[in-house]
């Protein structure tokens, strides 16, 4: 449907990981992605980054046929928590607790998730994709590309948080379809072959106790179709493009992230008055 062409003026770059933010609160998305306003990272956000970096080391070493070391992964986790490359607000979770949680979830990922997956790509940086008719450029780094038993390729993404996996073991997948759709489109374009297997969410719950630390795998069917739409019905990208092109960055005061902690535009936002 959309034409992939050489970059030109009036093209707005959209990171895959930011698209859900755009639909939740366009004003927050504008502040972070167009105006480059920043808040200190939350403690659990930093913990998620640390876990992500640690298990990426494990998966990458396995991918290239090298012996993976849990000690190396633990060192990466420690470094990411104690020497972050960004300002972090540790009010809600101190660094010692964060490292303890991270070590536990890293081990759960290594023993319960990684062995069940056949990864063919780890931290895959794809070329950006220009959709000229929509005026947007898709960008993103794909956590994982996996191959299922039928030989089909799919996208995998690691998600951490207090509610990533329920007590029943069910992984929260709602809200992740736009991001997974972009990753699927980028991967298919980069690989020059279909990426048709369901997208997988590797969920890890960042609870303080082992009892509450659940891990699991959830799947999202056909995220690219939801993103791109059909001849009869527009996809999410068409809606996103209209918001961006027309500059309609309205606020959502009912958003769960509408607070000074999460939104750099909070103090000046007229939509929450």
From TrEMBL:
Protein name: PD-(D/E)XK nuclease family protein
Domain spans labelled PD-(D/E)XK endonuclease-like: 16-269
InterPro entries: PDDEXK-like_dom_sf (IPR011604), PDDEXK_AddAB-type (IPR038726), Restrct_endonuc-II-like (IPR011335)
Organism: Acinetobacter cumulans
Record Pfam families: PDDEXK_1
Highest taxon of the lineage: Bacteria
